[in-house]
Design goal:
9 helices; disordered C terminus; mainly alpha; about 210 residues
Length: about 210
C-alpha cells in the first residue's frame, strides 16, 4: 500500500538525493522567509546575501539528517537568526570605535524586537512559512497581491499565467489553503490557547 507524503517531504527527499530541480524549488519556497528573518537584523544587502548563502549551505549539509521535513521553516528561522547574530558579532569586533565614523553606524546595535514589533515579526514568519506550503502559482499570486505598489491584475495575469477573471477565486482558494497550512494552524491554536488562559497573544484573527 502506497504511503502519501507531503510535497515538502518529497522535495526534501529528492533534493537530498541530488535532484537540482527539487533543490531549486525548496529555495524558491523558503527564500522569502529566510530574507525576512535576516532583514530584521538590518544588515546591508551584500551582508544579507552572504548570510542567506550560509544558511542555504547549512541546509544542504543537514538535508539527510532532517527527521521532519515539515519543520524546515522553523529550522530556517532559527539558523538565519543564529547566522545573522554571528555575522553581527564578527562585524562589531571589526568596526571602528569612533561613533562618528560612518562605518560605526552601519552595524545594528540592537537585534531585539521588543513588544509589538516581536509579535508582528512572528506573525510575518508564520505567514511566510504557510506560503511555502502552497502550490507555486498560489504562492506567487499571494506574494504579488501584497507587493507595494500592487501590480495591476493584467500584470499579475501576465506573470502568473492566471486569467484576470480567475485571480479573485484563486486568491480565495489560496487564502483558505494558507489558513489550513500546518504553520498557520499551529499559530492560531497557540493564540487561542493563550487568549483562553488570559495571555496576550495580540489576536489570532490577524493572520486571516
Amino acid at each position: 500500500m502506497a504511503v502519501d507524503i507531503s510535497p515538502v517531504t518529497a522535495l526534501v527527499v529528492a533534493a537530498a538525493g541530488g535532484e537540482q530541480q527539487a533543490w531549486s524549488e525548496l529555495v524558491s519556497r523558503y527564500a522569502p522567509l529566510l530574507v525576512s528573518v535576516i532583514r530584521r537584523f538590518r544588515l546591508a544587502p551584500s551582508e544579507t546575501e552572504d548570510v542567506a548563502q550560509t544558511v542555504w549551505l547549512r541546509l544542504v549539509e543537514h538535508l539527510d539528517s532532517l527527521q521532519e521535513p515539515q519543520a524546515i521553516p522553523q529550522w530556517i528561522i532559527t539558523t538565519a537568526r543564529r547566522e545573522s547574530i554571528r555575522h553581527l558579532s564578527s562585524a562589531r569586533r571589526l568596526r571602528p570605535s569612533d561613533p562618528l565614523d560612518p562605518v560605526y553606524a552601519s552595524v545594528a546595535a540592537d537585534t531585539a524586537d521588543p513588544g509589538e514589533g516581536l509579535f508582528r515579526a512572528e506573525r510575518h514568519e508564520v505567514l511566510l512559512s504557510g506560503l511555502a506550503d502552497l502550490p507555486g502559482r498560489q504562492r506567487e499570486l499571494l506574494l504579488l497581491l501584497v507587493e507595494d505598489p500592487q501590480p495591476s491584475y493584467a500584470e499579475i495575469s501576465k506573470r502568473t499565467g492566471i486569467p484576470v477573471g480567475s485571480i479573485g477565486p484563486t486568491r480565495s482558494r489560496a487564502l483558505e489553503r494558507l489558513r489550513r497550512s500546518p504553520p498557520v494552524r499551529a499559530y492560531l491554536a497557540a493564540s487561542e490557547r493563550s487568549e483562553s488562559s488570559g495571555g496576550d497573544r495580540h489576536g489570532a484573527g490577524t493572520l486571516g
